[in-house]
Each structure stands twice: as C-alpha cells, then as structure tokens.
Amino acid sequence: MTFGEDSKTQNVGLVIKNTDGVIVASGLSRAIMGEKVIFKNGGSGIILNLDEDNASIILLEEASGVKEGDSLKTTGEMLGIDVSEELLGRVIDPLGESLDGKPKIKKGKNMPLEKIAFGVVDREPVNTPLKTGIKAIDSMIPIGRGQRELIIGDRQTGKTAIVIDTIINQKNPPAGGKKPVICVYVAIGQKRSTIAQVIDRLTLEDALSYSIIVCASASDPASLQYLAPYAGMAIAEYFLGIGKDVLVVFDDLTKHAWAYRQISLVLRRPAGREAYPGDVFYLHSRLLERSVKLNKQNGGGSITALPIIETQANDISAYIPTNVISITDGQIYLQSDLFNSGIRPAINVGQSVSRVGGAAQTPTIKSVSNKLRLELAQYNSLAAFAQLGSELDLATQKQLNQGKRLTEILKQPQFAPLTENLEVLSIYAVTSGLMDDIPLESFPRFEKDIHDFAKKNYPAVLNSLSTGEKPTEQTLKQIKKMVEEFKKRFE
Amino acid sequence: MNSKKIDKLVVYSYKNDFLNQNKVNKIATLLSKSDLKKYINALKLTENKKSLIISSPMNNSDLKKFEKLFPNKKIVFKKDPTLMLGMEIIDNDIVYEFTLKNSLDKILNYIEQNYD
Lengths: 491, 116
What we know:
The complex is a heterodimer of chains A (491) and B (116). An eight-stranded mixed beta sheet of chain A has the order 8-12-11-13-14-10-15-16, sandwiched between helices. Chain A has helices spanning 135-140, 159-169, 192-204, 222-241, 253-266, 280-288, 319-327, 336-340, 363-369, 372-386, 394-410, 420-431, 443-457, 459-465, 473-489, and strands at residues 9-19, 22-27, 35-39, 44-50, 54-59, 71-78, 80-83, 91-92, 109-112, 150-153, 181-188, 211-216, 245-251, 302-310, 330-334, 353-354. In chain A, α11 (394-410) runs antiparallel to α12. Chain A has 491 residues and is of the alpha/beta class. Chain A has three domains: 12-77, Elongation Factor Tu (Ef-tu), domain 3; 82-360, P-loop containing nucleotide triphosphate hydrolases (Rossmann fold), CATH 3.40.50.300; 367-489, ATP synthase alpha/beta chain, C-terminal domain (Lysin). The longest helix of chain A is centred in the middle third of the chain and has 20 residues, at 222-241. Chain A is elongated, with a radius of gyration of 25 Å. With 116 residues, chain B is α+β, with helices and mostly antiparallel strands. Chain B folds into two domains: 3-49; 51-114, no CATH class. Chain B has five helices and six strands. Chain B has helices at residues 3-12, 21-30, 33-50, 63-69, 100-114; strands at residues 14-15, 18-19, 51-56, 74-79, 86-91, 94-99. Chain B has a four-stranded mixed beta sheet. In chain B, a hairpin with a 2-residue loop joins β5 and β6 (94-99). Chains A and B meet through β1 of A and β6 and α5 of B. β1 (9-19) of chain A pairs antiparallel with β6 of chain B, so a sheet runs across the interface.
C-alpha cells in the first residue's frame, strides 16, 4: 500500500509573487514541466514555465489564498483525473470534483490530462458512421467514428444545437449491431445558465445516462478553462481503453484559446498574432490528434471529436478558425443569414465538408444522397443568378423548384434527431420526385405524418432501410407505393 | 539593479565560505530600499544553499556522520519532539523526511481521501 507521493524526499520552494493566479516560486530545483505542486494552504497548481532561478505555476483554484513567502512542494505527479463508469451521468469540473451535488468519484483509474496521441500503427481508417440524426449532416457531410469534425459559425447559429442533437441521437441503438456511443460534453468559458440549459435538456431527453459533462464556466479561473478539454479527452481515453466508442464535444475552443492567451500573457510569454502565444496551434493540434479510431488489436474503440469554434461576423479566415480548420477532418459551417431566413440547421453546404466521413457512410444513405450535394450546390448558384432576371427556361425553373424542395426537406426542428431509415425515406421521397406535387409549406407536416404512417403501416420497409445495405428495387417500389398511398390521405 | 549584479554582491559578501558581517553592513548602506530587499532575499537563498538543517526528537549524537556526508555545508541541528521518531533533513529545497509523524500524517490523509 502506498500513500501518494514518495514518502522520503520532497522538493520544496517559496512563493516569490502572485499575479492574477500565476505564481512565481523559487527553489523547486527538481521540478518538471506540467508537474502538480501543492501549497502550504492546501491549494494546488501546475508548473507551466521553468526558468533558471524560478518556476511559474498556474493555480487551479482562486488565487487569493496564496501569498508571498508561502511554501510549496512538488508532488512528482502530472495532472490527472480519476475516471470510472460511475462518471456516466455526472457533471464534474476539469479536476474531477463533483458539480452536481453528488459525492466525488474516489475509485477510478487515474488518466493523465496530457498524453501523446496514438501512433499510426495503432490506428485504422475511419469506417463506421457516427449518426447525428440530422438529415443534412448524415446525408451530405457524414461523420465517422474517430473523425474530428469542426462546427464553426457565428453566435446564435445553432452550433450547440447540432451537438446536443447528436448526443441525443446516440440514445437510438445504432443500425447493424454497432456499439453504442458514450458522450463527453466539455463546456469551456460558457455562462453557467447556458450549461444548466444543456444539462436540463440532456436530462429531459434521457441522454445524461450515457453522457459526462465537464464544466469550466466563464467564472472559473482561466487555468481550469485551459485544462477542461484535456480532462474531457482523458475521460474519453479511459472508455477508449475498454473498447468503447466515445464522442467528445468541445464547446468551444475559441474560449479555450482565449483562456490560454490570458495565461500566456500573465506568464510573460512572447505574444504573436492577435496576442496569442506562438504555440496556440499546438494547443489544439495535440488535443484533437488524440481523437482516434483504433484497430482491432487495440480494442477497436474510437474517439470522435466535435470541436466548436465561434466566428466573428462569419469570418472563417481569422487566426483560430483557420488553425482548427486545418487540424480537423472537415467542418460544418453555419451561417447567420441562412439561420435568419429560416433554414435550420443553417448549414452552408458549399463551404462544409467531411474529408473522411464518406468512407463511413452506409450504402443505404449513400444511395439516396449521392446527388443531393451537387443538386443543392447547383441550386444555390442558380438561385443567385435567377434573382437578376425574371424569364427562366423550363429546365432552370425545374432545377430551382427541386432545389427549393431539397432545402425544405433538409430543414429539421431542434431536439428531433431522426433514425437513418426515416432520413432515407424523407430524402428519397424528394430526390425521386414523389413529393413534387406537395406544396413547400406543407413539407414539415407531410414529413412528420408520413413517418408516423410508415411506422404504423410499413414497418417492414423501415426495417429493410435500417440494415445499412443499399435498398433493393423491391424496397424502393414499396416506398413509392407507400408515398402514393399516403398522399391520397394527406390533405 | 538586475539580479546578476545582486548575485555578484552576494558573492562579495562572503569571506572563506562564511558570511562577512562588515562587508554585508557596508553593502547594505549603499543599496536602495528595493535593491536591499532583493539582496537580503538572495543572501537568504545562498545561506540556505550552504547550510543543512537537521531536525530530530533525539539528541544530536550522529552529527559527525552528516558532516562527512556534506563536507561543504554548515550543519544546523534542531530538536523537535513533535516528529516523534526519525529525522528530517532540509538541504536547500530538498527535504528528506524519515519521521513517524510524517508517516502517520500520510496514513490519515490516505484514509480521509479514500474512505467511503
């Protein structure tokens, strides 16, 4: 039995100064970068700078308790978090302290916050879909397990809504006997009221039982905000280690970069572009590189990362957005213009891309969505052109109408993710021209009612669309028959 | 005054590895208030580096062993009955702790953190 750190030797130091939560201490001649230190008053911190005569330490709690002359000692430990299955359904801070009023998890595996990502040999290509339940994403910008897909857009464009829907959708058992997904939602620098809303919604949708929320709100010290995504990733790595598939959401990395900039400036590190330190790219790349799809020999688990970036005035060419775009395997770009014109989710199809998710798409959805992206892109360019002139030829008019129908069917209310078979049914009904005679304003009602109709009267068709295989001619004929039959009833 | 100059003054303050009171008094009168503070801190750090503090609840019977182990250090003995048994050695910023008090504290701390 051991009682923590080495009981024989300790490396001690003295606090020289305390500025905004950053402590400069003398002594600590054997300290190492990233090591955890403990202060005389019981507080703790981590070493972020090692100079010739002193070390700079960021405090992990409020700074007021530490004063000049206080003693501190190293622990010989890197910062870690205790993780076990008991964490599911819990709300914790980046140090593992309970924030939901329940007792702290004491028994668990200590996972290091900072860890080198898995190497090339341990990985395999992304080959399993991660269903978001959002038609536009699953059909045109598919996400695979182990992928890093950025969600980027201005404030109030529905970024968090997409990830919440994705978490809720993991409640549905995945098609084809795939493993269920554990979700980790990391809130960084957000208002506590916003985080409370997210928790309430997940509880309401019964999604908290397979989720863990790591919370470093705007009122928490910058050090906790800086550590939060690494804590989230460490939790995900625990479940990866037991062969599970995990989804990690970082909401959002813009505020994470702000927190790191604040710490770096107080540490007097040289400031670069927009006052961010030189290693701000590495800050995010080392985090997102830890998302992985492991091969069978290593358990076959995966960590899918959905980082969120908030832009200012739709500028995706700013410093942090371009950094994260280049790190990730694609991005979902949400635009405020689309949001305000009622297209929700407000995905800009032209600028959104999934670089590896296509390989993970099931043949079912691939078969109905292969033309979707192209048709929508053509519609968008034609729609802009059509605004200039009034007379349009029949072919153009037809293309515009089809584009409008596609746009309409891809709209989806919040907190209503769909299973793959219903997504396929909706998209196929439009792309095959079965809904050409339905007025656009009736689309939402038609879609909802036909889903209910199919569940009640054609469960076999829906089952055949759930297998993940390409729909047979027979299935497609049955869908046509079903839609025609439903149209007769639909007023 | 920068830290390198302060360090030089600290070196000048010593004569044959011992702090020279006359030199320190002379330097202290020449320094501004802020530099004097830095100078005193630097002196304290240097003194810490040059000395070895041994605390024990027993009498100082084994000091000669430590004089051999640390020939260039000034050995200071402190009797501390609260340690119960064993010895605590402070060598600048390294603390060697072999005391019963420390072991008991660690056991209590462990139980406190892990007991359900």
